[in-house]
Amino acid sequence: MSDKKKNTSKNDLHLENDHRITTKRSLSTQLSTELNKTKSGSTSKRQKSLLICVVCDDGAHGYNFDAISCESCKAFFRRNALQLQKLKCRRNDGHCDVRFNIKKRCKKCRLEKCIETGLDQ
Amino acid sequence: MSDKKKNTSKNDLHLENDHRITTKRSLSTQLSTELNKTKSGSTSKRQKSLLICVVCDDGAHGYNFDAISCESCKAFFRRNALQLQKLKCRRNDGHCDVRFNIKKRCKKCRLEKCIETGLDQ
DNA sequence: CAACCAGGTCACGAGGTCAC
DNA sequence: GTGACCTCGTGACCTGGTTG
């Protein structure tokens, strides 16, 4: 079977080793979990941006393309996933900073970071 | 239902190394699985997934629409059973792989497989 | 009354849209 | 081109009727 399903347990989740949770309902679980710890469990509605985008460190609210990523990296990856060959890094020879607070992010380096960090179409 | 479901586990999440759970609710599942192993080894409640879905080879827990099928194929068939005419296979001319571990399953081919394997509304 | 299954529910995430 | 927002299909879980 897949790995899917099942579940049913209400126990801990320790994802160690690179576990990835790619699942639907599990996320909230995760989040709520954390919320519960700190707050008292309110888990508002949307705003569960307690997650950090693996690509740019911005806030994320779940998985996109199999990795915890923000809306902008999701959209970026969606548009550019197949363009790697066509892109060129014109500044730092492939070592540009692509974090969210950087003004003009190098497309080539951003895409490479996406791929490295596991985004997968 | 708010967040429906459950899972609810309120415990930690440690995402470290590379595990990947590629599923939806899998998280907890996985965990539980492991828990069960170590703990009492039982398959808790549902978990009678010793059966294999005739459509996608995923774990199944019984008959749905007259065939042994998983939750997802059951839901898929429920929604699409009458849509065969409207669907088109855009990739492999009607020969797409529709097993559970395939990322984007072709609806047309999945529905045809459902019908071929005997799902019947 | 326990097990089974059809159908309902709804969080999640992929893709679309559009103001900028 | 970018990124915030929206829409909708998917699938895990729930509910309720039926059957033994």
Automatic annotation (TrEMBL), chains A, B:
SUPFAM superfamilies reported in the protein's UniProt record: Glucocorticoid receptor-like (DNA-binding domain) (SSF57716)
GO MF annotations, alphabetized: nuclear receptor activity; RNA polymerase II cis-regulatory region sequence-specific DNA binding; zinc ion binding
Annotated Gene3D superfamilies: Erythroid Transcription Factor GATA-1, subunit A
Keyword DNA-binding: yes
Basic and acidic residues bias: start-end ranges: 1-21
InterPro entries assigned: Nuclear_hormone_rcpt_NR1 (IPR050234), Znf_hrmn_rcpt (IPR001628), Znf_NHR/GATA (IPR013088)
GO BP annotation list: cell differentiation; negative regulation of transcription by RNA polymerase II; positive regulation of transcription by RNA polymerase II
Annotated stretches, region: Disordered: 1-45
Keyword annotations: DNA-binding, Metal-binding, Nucleus, Receptor, Transcription, Transcription regulation, Zinc, Zinc-finger
Domain Nuclear receptor: 50-121
Compositional bias (Polar residues): 24-44
TM helices/strands, residue ranges: none
PANTHER family the record matches: BILE ACID RECEPTOR-RELATED, NUCLEAR HORMONE RECEPTOR
Protein's name according to its UniProt entry: Nuclear receptor domain-containing protein
Organism: Adineta steineri
Classification of source organism: Eukaryota, Metazoa, Spiralia, Gnathifera, Rotifera
